[in-house]
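Milestone M4 deliverable, item 7.
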Amino acid sequence: MTPPSKKSTSASSPAKPKSAPTAKRKAPEKPGRKAKDAADEDDGDGAQGKKRPISPPEMSQELIDFITAIDSYKRAHQRPFPSWGEVLDVLKSLGYERGA
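Output delivered:
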């Protein structure tokens, strides 16, 4: 009686694991958030899925001052993405204080 044969694996040709075909999986919805649909992203110009940037005439002077201060900070400190602490420092430099 001969022993059952074993598959021989050589070091020169390692066996590749078989992979199942990849299918796109839908990410689970987060609690408290509704699913987006085309109506949520439609801004009226027919381009769905893209948000229109806000133009300066639509901004308050307070918002323009904040954007300018953040941009100045980023340029002066060579920081493309300031931390939240740095944003808070910019806000304080503009005179904002925590309400009671």
